[in-house]
Structure of Oligoribonuclease (3'-5' exoribonuclease):
Amino acid sequence: MDTRVLQRAEIIIPSVDISLLKKLAQKFGWSIQFKEEKNKIDQSLEDAAKGRVYTSKDIDDLMDHLLK
């Protein structure tokens, strides 16, 4: 009876090494799922475009909002 324990791992590698990772995975019979994440600037621009921003009246209002 073949009992394999599967584990999921997340690694972060430079995009130039993706082809090497794909070859390695193919050689060992691993499966890879790629998930591209947006960087913080792109996330912020998307939030601003969708109106997910907070406009404070003054510094006290901003501090109250941040500390909630």
Remarks:
- The mean pLDDT is 89.
